[in-house]
Design a protein that fits this description.
Length: 290
Amino acid sequence: MSIPLQQNGITYKIVDKRHVKVQRIGALKINGLEQIPENAELANARLIKRHGDYYIQITAFLPKEEHEQLPYYIGIDFGIKNQLTLSNGVRINFKVPLVDEKIKKLQRLLKRKKVGSKRYRETQLKLQKEYEHLSNIRKDIANKVGSYLVTNFALVSFQDDNIRLWERLWGEIVGATALGNVKTFLNDHGAQEIDPFYPSTQECSQCHKRTKMPLSQRVYVCPYCGNVIDRDLNSAIDNAEEGLTVRRSLGLNKPLMPADDRTSTSMVEYFNNIPFVDASLVNETGRAQF
Ligand SMILES: [Zn+2]
């Protein structure tokens, strides 16, 4: 169930950091208002009732000049071992559990209730809420990752590594990372998707010759030019370059620079401030082991 709140300031109004006043209902205590940037312009909102809880969904716009994109292009390599490796050497991992302690406790509790009883339904509702809570955290992280990239970089390129196939193979792990949500976000916000058959894992990011590497080999070693580089980083750089090539073939010739160290420090800092997210710099060669 949801009620549209069309006009900010009339049908609804943010009173302070914890409260929203809704016309004819009054002031509601709200969590998460701090997510709205101070300079955001608020549009319409919706009051939503779900699993016995109320949510307010607010559409906000940021003034355009506030997020000037850097003249950099960046590429992403999606993976299972490392969720995101970026061509500027940043690695982002995030795992929100599918089932946490609270859910386990509620599941045990549910087993002891009589099916269909009032207590059973109450526990079931709490369980649904907790699942939804974790799922919202995952979606939120996916959106933050996607939005950081499209907001800060003039060109973001990624390859469809067939996340759906992985999900079938790896179910839980991929589900817990919401990689699909990241990709959906990127697709919806103008990122460049590149040909799924482009062999980014085989191509040397330095000399562009191709060598097959078994998946178990985490370090790419080029027999032609001697390039030794973390496997995922190699792919991310290839994807970045390929995305730029695609853009140029479309006649978009805006001069851009490859994302490098200048973009990585602040990125690591930003992502490490988000719960469940771990960001680091890739050790260039990942230490080759033979
Ligand atoms: Zn090479």
